[in-house]
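Pilot study result, target chain (448 residues):
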Amino acid sequence: MPRRGLTAEPAGVYSQLLRLCPQAQHAPLCVALSGGEDSTALLGLLAQLPQVQGRLRAVHVDHGLHPDSAHWSRLCRDTCRTLHVPLAIRRLRLTCPPGASVEAVAREARYAALGTALRAGELLLSAHHLEDQLETVLLQLLRGAGLRGLAAMPATTPFADGVLVRPLLELPRAALRGWVRSRGLACVADPANADVRFDRNFLRHRVLPVVLGRWPAAAQTVTRSARHLAEAQELLDELAAADVARAADGRALSAAALRALPLPRRRNALRYWIGRSGAVPDARRLAEIAETLLAARPDSNPVVRFGQLEVERHAGRLSLGVRRPAAPAYELTWHLRRSPRLTLPSGAGRLELRPSSQGLIDANALPAQVTVRSRRGGERLRPRIDGPSRTLKSLLQTERIALGERRHLPLLYAGEQMLAVADLWVDARWQPGAGSDRRLTVVWHRPA
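Predicted structure:
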């Protein structure tokens, strides 16, 4: 049964809305209206309340995926006209890439459209109900979700620049359907909702009737379990926030501090830290970050990529950023007598040769042209006349040159002999002797 005090009546729904989100007493309200029975019920219930008149409206997203979608938009407009509620329609023209889930593509596009449609200070109201919550828990369980997934849909959650509120989560579908039909409101009948090829529809039409036939209160009891799991997740988040704060090194995390944590606690901290970006890696990628990446050799710079993000370890620190494409390789000839300046390809900046009394290049030994190219791996040079040959990789690690800078690093060659590494090092064979009267220095104008 629904929670006592929450009924499919205007006063009960409004009371629940205020309990979940007190600012709803004065804030503008926007209902996500699909045209189905659930969202029509939510809009109709609220439209009967004098206290929300003038601050209630609806937004309908036309995905353009069904030939009847324009008809559904007109039906939503008629419903809103009947209820005296303003309506905004966002029309999309979606295409589903091969192998992608139509459900997922439509859902992502719908929420993006709703986010851009919201006005400043407006609350978005969604009509998810009790059986929706049951379906979500079961789907997440079958997909191997953790606590956050099994906690299902929260009653309130940050959304775009505001808040998404689900005031009907404790009401059964039958109560909403009964209310709509008793008012004679026309609703959209999307045939896709009956297509059991989709997981949620298969659960709804094939599995849940059997489950509810055996356990009539399953929706209420499973929803109660989801609330317990949500509370457990809150405690894990508090622990993770404390661990992340202790491991923080600027915006990065200390690899040593993370390794000091037990593995389950380390995964929890990393999941929380990455999750603040709005994306969470799957279990395999999370394990790779928590174990393989942190256990790699100290002189390596491992990276784990997922979606549009990547976690990178460098100089004992883990950083999280937008996934960067590999820097394109290049090789070009620099005619020094024609120009002392060279613009590098692939956004790698500019090089310049300048006369300097402190310069590390002997101008008299320099050929008329040099080759400039990107890194290929295995490069060596002798940065000191009295020192040994070193690998470029070890020099970069010793000096802690940032990974972003390494990606664009230009190397200068005279024939097959390395001359200089940008403005960082000059090979000993090109360095001036005591009697050198002409010296040059390399200036690398780094990319922004």
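One observation from the pilot: DSSP finds 14 helices and 22 strands in the chain. A full batch analysis is planned for the follow-on phase.
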